[in-house]
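Holo model, zinc ion. Inputs:
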Amino acid sequence: MKSDIRICSAWRDAHERPVYTLSSNCPECGADAINSAPAPFNPEDPYGEYRRALKRRAHE
Ligand SMILES: [Zn+2]
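Output:
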């Protein structure tokens, strides 16, 4: 069994930074914890995509 480090799936909304856990739920907010391996976020700009989404919405 390989070690699975998971990440809170709702960290962008619930936390200021990614929350990692070994359980299947976030220990801080209780959201599902997902496998962190494929997480495509850029640690230098974790809110970039969210910000761009807000910007698009603002222009509609
Ligand atoms: Zn969380």
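Strands lie at 6-8, 20-21, 33-35. The mean pLDDT is 81.
Archived with the compound record.
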